[in-house]
Amino acid sequence: MRKTCAKYQIFVTAVMLACLLGCAEQSTPSRDHIPLIKEKLSYLQNGVLTRNQAVIDSVLSVKILDIGQSSDSLLKFIYGADNSFEFELFGEPVIIYTDKFAMIECYLMDSTRVKNRPLTLLFSYDNEIWLLSRFEKRGAGESRAD
Description:
- There is one protein chain.
- With 146 residues, the chain is of the alpha+beta class.
- The protein has a single domain, classed as Nuclear Transport Factor 2, Chain: A (Roll).
- Helix content is 39%, strand content 25%.
- It has helices at 2-23, 33-49, 53-57, 63-66, 71-79; strands at 89-97, 101-109, 118-126, 129-137.
- It is globular, with a radius of gyration of 15 Å.
- It starts with a helix and ends in a 9-residue tail after the last strand.
């Protein structure tokens, strides 16, 4: 079952990358999206840091519920089942985007700033607003080159 989940995550990531890199409109996406995406990431980070589900919910797309994710599952994913991780920030974010989709690869970091918890955040541009539509852990084989 675990291998199936890993294959599914790789498949979903590959499909998203394909959409981001080639399936969307062929024109160069507007650079105006960059500050908006960064703003949403900062807002999400503050919501996670303060464990404020209302703030996190305001950044989530309704589509995220269709895949069984929510503000509660995001907090559990980040802080761990035992609530022992001391989250401080989404470290070293790399943003890849089109006019309709964005993927942010980053690390869940505590005060040690160790890069051992890679995370991918997938956003979609709905009604002129960037909203989080999926989050997933990057596996060892999927880690970006730093």
